[in-house]
Amino acid sequence: MDLGLQHKVAIVTGGSEGIGRATARALGLAGARVVICARRADVLAKAMHELSSETGSEVLAMPVDVREPADVLRLVDGVMARLGRIDILVNNAGTSAAAAFESLTDDAWQDDLDLKLFAALRLTRLAIPHMRAVGGGSIVNLLNIGARQPAAGSMPSTVSRAAGLALTKALSKELAPDKIRVNAVLIGLVKSAQHDRKRKDGVDRERYYADMARQRQVPLGRVGEAEEAADLIAFLSSARAAFITGAAINFDGGASAVP
Ligand SMILES: NC(=O)c1ccc[n+]([C@@H]2O[C@H](COP(=O)([O-])OP(=O)(O)OC[C@H]3O[C@@H](n4cnc5c(N)ncnc54)[C@H](OP(=O)(O)O)[C@@H]3O)[C@@H](O)[C@H]2O)c1
């Protein structure tokens, strides 16, 4: 399927590892020029070089902490200065944060909201005028199935993600007249760097993920691949999904009871 992404410009936050890196690859393979950002400059630079050679598309990298308003502004200004347009924004940067409610300090709440909510809304606000200027665009927000089905001990993440879901739905209505589509992908369990880092030395990676799927009782019996999530995100970002906005799609192997 031709996704029609040639000459489009995409920003993928957290594009150096995991789902973000796989998404940058899928968009690049479909012909888009891609800008990835993350905090660790060495990991980011390595990803940029690998993605450039793997995709044959232009891939740029900017060290950015998406929690910092000045960094986010520098990112958008940098993309416009270097590539001159923004068509696609994938708000992906994030990591799990789940603890008992009474153990959470104001700082822990603020940090999670800064990473998962304020980063996305600030970046979206800055990207909108540039998307309008090119006649439309696509925003995909990465969330968690807990946004619709929050469990005990799942905060602050599920609260930040529920806010991201509301942001997605409300913005999709507000921006539809400008042909800017806003969708969300609700992740269940997907193989990525954040899970790999928790794997103990000597434990086989496939065994580790098979045990995880069993413990979390994923109906399809496995953990998702980052590349599979990336295919969905690339599709939602593309003209093939031109009639889809305000959708929040579970990517969870059937784990969530709430569709
Ligand atoms: N994998 C899952 O099972 C799962 C489940 C539910 C939700 N999700 C969500 O899906 C998204 C991707 O997760 P993943 O598992 O692929 O994560 P990952 O493998 O840990 O990759 C996270 C990426 O985000 C970047 N990042 C983290 N904090 C950042 C910050 N403050 N500013 C800029 N970049 C930042 C990381 O680079 P640096 O560390 O160098 O900044 C890295 O590139 C996240 O929003 C996550 O919450 C994932």
Automatic annotation (TrEMBL):
<dbReference type="InterPro" id="IPR002347">
    <property type="entry name" value="SDR_fam"/>
</dbReference>
<dbReference type="InterPro" id="IPR036291">
    <property type="entry name" value="NAD(P)-bd_dom_sf"/>
</dbReference>
<dbReference type="Pfam" id="PF13561">
    <property type="entry name" value="adh_short_C2"/>
</dbReference>
<comment type="similarity">
    <text>Belongs to the short-chain dehydrogenases/reductases (SDR) family.</text>
</comment>
<keyword id="KW-0560">Oxidoreductase</keyword>
<protein>
    <submittedName>
        <fullName>SDR family oxidoreductase</fullName>
    </submittedName>
</protein>
